[in-house]
Amino acid sequence: MKDLIKNEIIKMFYRKKILIGLAVILISSIVGVWGTIAIIKSTSPENEIKITQQKIANLKKERMKTKDPIKRQKIDEQILQSQAYIDNLKISMKSTDWRKDVKNQLAKLKKSMKEATDLSLLDSKEYYREQILEYEYCLKKNIKPYTLWQINNWTVMNIFLGLIIFLLPFIVFIFASDIVSNEISQKTISLLVTRPISRFKIALSKFISATIVCSALVIISEILVFIITGLLYGFIDLKYPITVGTRYRKHGLELIPIYGSTYIVPLGKFLIYALLLQLLIITACCALSFFISAISKSNSTAITLSFLMVYGIYFIVSPISEVVSKLNFLKAFLLYTYLNPLDILENNIATNVMISIMTPFVSILILFGYIVVFLLTSLKIFNKKDLLV
Asked: CA 243 to CA 193: how far, in whole Å?
């Protein structure tokens, strides 16, 4: 089995498309980091204040036109949140004592938490508690909270992941979508299956080799971005607090975070969890690609179907669900929804699909479901397929 996997990996690196894949990863990394740094620089306090002031002006105009009391209440909440954001920015620009600033912020947050109505996400007790947890942890560990406009390897990586994740299926499809169909079209598969090796081992070795190559290329590129940006702009403390695991309850058409559900993990541990999830996500993408390759007879068909299965269906369902909110749950069944490991850990998936029972554990189960269903189906198809024609 080891020799089969080794041979499959070697064959993958002899294919011309390896250069295309490497080029995509290199270009997307360079452009992604450059764009990320530009985004961070655009969030300087001065720019943020101007943007937020314009947002408040627009909200006030919208409020004047709105007669619905519930909508007006939500707009009032947004105005208050935006004004508080401006006030905090102005204070942070003047202050030099970060511990004093954090204590002042804690006092305001605790007061806001007591007054929170728990009727909307931005005015829920857990929304304020989440920020309180971060600030209290920073005080306890003597870690200065970073701001959105500060450039370090974590602020870059956080935004960079959101940008690069869009290309993850594309990278996987380049290497894995025709791993079977390519050999069928070139009629080299018949030589392989006539050898005294079970079809199960042949198929499994192809899947494992594709997963190893895709995982190595994607994760190594992400680690390099994290290290290089750290050397250029500074490394963030790996003890820095990250809030994860928020759970939600249904309230009308909204999801409200459950009080006490969010907890803190240090950044170092968070990155390990994210790395493991990234491996799981890539494996799920490879399982889907392997399935499509097993049912396809040509390279072009395999690649086209792969794109339609991940990108096409999502970009059809997503706009429809925006119009018909009751259809949001459909996104829970699409692989594209689970491509960002940070969204899974922070449980942003729940608010995306508007399902209150969604948790990081449920997201992981769905990814495992993708792997098991598509891999087993692929192995069955490969075993019954007429490959000697």
From this structure: 51
